[in-house]
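Consider this record:
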Amino acid sequence: MMNSLHLLKDLRVLIVDDSAVVRSVLSKELLRSGVNAVQAENGRQAFNMALAREFDLIITDIEMPFMDGIELCRRLKSNPKTRQIPIVILSSLDSEKDIQRGYKAGASTYISKSQAKDSLIETIETVLQKTTFQRGRLILVVDDSLTVRTLVERGLKEVGFEVVKAENGQAGLNLLKNGVRPDLILSDIDMPVMNGEEFCRNVHSDPVLASIPFVVLSANNDRPIMRRMLQLGADAYLVKPFNVDQLVITVEKLLSDKLLLLHKEKERLEAEQKLILASITSLCCALEARDSYTRGHSEAVSYIATRMAAEMGMSREEIELVKLGGKLHDLGKIGVVDSVLLKPGKLSDEEFAIIKRHPVIGADILRPVPSMAGILPIVYHHHERMDGRGYPEGLKGDSIPLWARITAVGDTYHALTSDRPYRKGMEMGKALQIIREASGSQLCPDCVSVFLKLAPWDEASTAEKGDLVTGSSSDNPAIEAPKSLVIPVIK
């Protein structure tokens, strides 16, 4: 479970109780967790406050003058402005009948005051996690009945889901083909144009869509039909007329199960990636032992490419992949013989052909590892050219993956400015001029533009500081300046 200090910090909670002592005790308890608590003496006052201000959660007693907690729940849940606020009923009335009344009125959970001291914070965390999980989740509702679509939409929106609707399977399929990506699909069977069976078959024949949970809503309660739909990939089957609360609970359960599976898969991939990276690190160490230039070069290229990716507005996940791809882009040089890799003079055509194999070798090393799939385009394509004269595929223009085009700019710049076995590194001004001249022929113009936008490079500071000059690594924690490189300041 998420740390309470993180989850509850700056939370806005409305405490509703006619007892000043109870309100004071609850407020102090919540304050210790960083919660901003506001108090109301009864349901009527609380309802007016909820209309005037925004709250993340409401904690209410039941028995109060003017308006009790049950009526407060009903009014909050019937008002579009307040219906998505989760409500915790905290009451000394804890009979089964009282609890059922609370849930029926729309409360998210019910706690006895005798249990509050031990379980209030944990209960709030659970309610907020569920609410946060549901808020913004998109449900596709496919039914030829406007009434059913409207009722289902209303029930789902009341608990925080977003809804998109379609009147038949074909309309639903069109939404999916146009890029709508719901977290779950609710579909009738008997519909015109395309029925639910064909719709389900189409969804599950597409690898991109097949993982979306699919729930059938149908008046047909024939058991063979139910089995048929489940065989086609449906995850659940609800018979009309159904209770909206039953539907909501089914949706919540399926999405929670899916989230748990995704979390476990993520943990598995992360563990796998750590093991693979450890193995790859060993290969890189072997490469560095042969060619001390490679380590400094790869880290510098990674840093430059990462800064460019951040400047382009990429997500943190994308920046992390660019960073890793930059570090491993020359991994394939492990398969190049020393006589070629470390040759101090000009390479012959035969020797250059061997060097040109390193992107292929690097990709072959990483390809068997599923978690490395994201960086393969960088490793394999970072020597492609915009004019099609690069290698290994001879790709042209935008057919070269963007991350590879970004990496190529950093690769070219650092290669020009660094000392090599066969020459001294050139001055930055000259290197930048070569980068400009290569724009459009060798290098991607858009990437060069971003690279130059991060310039001018601080030549004076570099000359003064010698080994390393690093600028701000931005606010993105994915960006780390290399520790031992000749690298210029990015203003």
Observations:
- The longest helix spans residues 244-290.
- The domain at 4-134 is CATH 3.40.50.2300 (Rossmann fold).
